[in-house]
Write a structure and sequence with these properties.
Blueprint lengths: L3 H12 L6 H6 L8 H16 L2 E11 L28 H14 L3 E6 L10 H14 L3 E5 L5 H10 L3 E3 L6 H4 L8 H13 L3 E3 L2 E3 L5 H14 L3 E6 L16 H14 L4 E4 L3 H5 L13 E3 L11 H10 L3 E2 L5
Parallel strand pairs: 1-2, 1-9, 1-10, 2-3, 3-4, 4-5, 6-7, 7-8, 8-9
Helix pairs in contact: 1-3, 3-10, 4-5, 5-6, 9-10
GO molecular function: 2 iron, 2 sulfur cluster binding; 4 iron, 4 sulfur cluster binding; biotin synthase activity; iron ion binding
Keywords: 2Fe-2S, 4Fe-4S, Biotin biosynthesis, Iron, Iron-sulfur, Metal-binding, S-adenosyl-L-methionine, Transferase
EC number: 2.8.1.6
Amino acid sequence: MMKLQDLFDLAQAVLSGAALSFDDALALTELTEDDIPVLLSLANKIRVHFTGSTVDTCEIVNARSGNCSENCSFCAQSAHHRTQIETYPLLSEQALVTAAKQAEAHGAYRFCIVTSGCGMKNDADFPNITQAIQRIGRETTLQRCCSLGILSDEHVAALKQAGITRYHHNLESSKSFFSQICSTHSYDDRVATVKKVKAAGLEVCSGGIIGLGESWRQRIELAFALKELNVDSVPINVLNPIKGTPVENVARLHPLEILQTFAIFRFILPDKIIRYAGGRERNLGELVPLGFLSGINGMLLGNYLTTSGRGADTDLQTITQLGLSPVGSSL
């Protein structure tokens, strides 16, 4: 069991520029419950030291919903599962532009177009998506992102030319756990897309979901994989079980374990954006603000793909009440 002094020593080493080892990160998962608040405070110190007091904000639009060919166990949009979500084809260009303008009005800094499906291979919607991205660039001041699944080099080049600055593509979990949550494509397929996007000079937003039944070791494996890929933004979702998916009855994580995960990711990735994403309201409730005191410095505002959030105004209020500054907001 790690002693309190050892915890302080690790934090000081990270603050001094040292990289946390895998074994030391794993040791942080074995802290006693009464030492977890100390871990959170030290992670907050690391966040302030490396990234300051700003919070990177973004909003997403579910631009094409459902009927996905992939069988990801957590996803309400998979055609393999019987869920009650709304399904629809790609939204019109005007609808996407309107959603972007609403995000800008809410105070978001970034806007992300998200589509269901494995990727853009032979996808007739791709030209319409790039056209919408270009128009959003002309009509808003937003940083433009998208999440379109697996890409070819040609897709990456076209998105860069259209004005995308960051591409979202989660690894979802560690390589050792991935086969337990998806069998229709591989972990390596996801890694390959991340590498293509980085090679093109674009930023990458890539993280995963905790609470799927993965072990602490596998959670740490994910963090180190993201570190090796040098991703820029790490969204951490907490499973919000959807009825009709294979994980609908998975036990919820304890709130302290969720906050502990945020803190450990900050120790491993001291200078990156670690982003609050889906599931935080259901799993943390009134403890949501504590995430920002546990190393979080990014936030997905408002609603998610198929579930509702607290609303952008409430999210931004949480940020500012903690003395932090949301990027792109006039607050």
